[in-house]
Design goal:
Helix content: 40-55%
CATH topology: hpI Integrase, Chain A
Number of helices: 10
CATH architecture: Orthogonal Bundle
Radius of gyration: 26 Å
Structural class: mainly alpha
Shape: globular
Length: about 220
Amino acid sequence: MKIDRHGKAKVLTPEEIQRLFTDGLTTVRDRTLIAVMLYTGCRVNEAVTLKIKDVYNSRGRIRAELIIRKGNSKGKLATRSIPILEELRHFLEQYRPAPSNEGFLFPGRWGRNHLHSEYASLIFREACERVDIEGASTHSCRRTALTLMSNAGIPLRVIQEISGHRSLEQLQNYLEVEPDQVRGAIAALSMLAPPSTSGNNLDKKIEDNTKLSAE
């Protein structure tokens, strides 16, 4: 859990996500911003630097895939295309930002440049405080998305293509291992054959022979 910006951001539960979107986030823009991070697993800086044309086509229709540009990604490794889920499409339909000179999906104050990532983090933290979610940050959206995909059995190489991590090792640091998974892993050992009783029989024979010698 993350406390005072130290430690890993918590993975959100479905109930916490529901509270966050129902009572924590107060504007359409804020709900759309967090939905983008949650339903694509992208970083906060990748979300705030999206252009309108990365999400909507020239006719204003929502694209089938959202484009995260190489120049805005950490390490500038590659441009990524991420399918837009129906759940995310719902928020984008409601949002539909007005065109601006620079064309950012989430413009900054007075429509200039883009929303700063620190301000986006503040929006998220305040929303979490409203609904009593502790230990979360904007990284929680990314960790939650990637962990859910991993738990669903999606191969790590496929998740890496979505997350944009440089290596599988970096990706694995994001994934949460839940207590139920640990218990399930141990429970799998019940399939092992029971230990042989031959050892117990041998001990008994040794004990019997010792008694006979004493007599």
